[in-house]
Amino acid sequence: MSYPETLRYTKDHEWLRLEGDVATIGITDFAQRELGDIVYVEVETIGKTLKAGDVFGTVEAVKTVSDLFLPVDGEITELNEALANAPELVNTDPYGEGWMIKMKVADPADIEQLMTAAAYETLVD
Questions:
Q1: Handedness of CA 81, 114, 54, 88 (dihedral sign)
Q2: Domains of the chain by range and CATH?
Q3: What are the φ/ψ torsions at residue 122 (nearest 5 degrees)?
Q4: Mean pLDDT by 10-residue block, N- to C-terminus, for the chain (125 residues)?
């Protein structure tokens, strides 16, 4: 499995890409493989300010529903609209077209507390 070096990771299997103070968030390749075929992504927190660890949505696979946890504090600003008609993008391109949300990060320095690719790989392997 691949874990891009440019991303940060959580123990709950979310990834985060920071550009300025805007973060793009999705689930890792490991997470999508564990879940199986993704059939629905639900995020009802657009416009809300949440804390790290708060549930920002759910991802539904054929056999299970799993909560999605916010990696850092901030405001949820955007949902990947493509997932409404093509939730399988999370399976086929978890680090690209399968992203889930964008958020305005409260403190970009918080990103440093997340795992590097090497640390995440150690966690899941």
A1: positive
A2: 8-107 (2.40.50.100)
A3: -65, -40
A4: 92 97 97 96 97 97 95 98 97 97 97 97 94
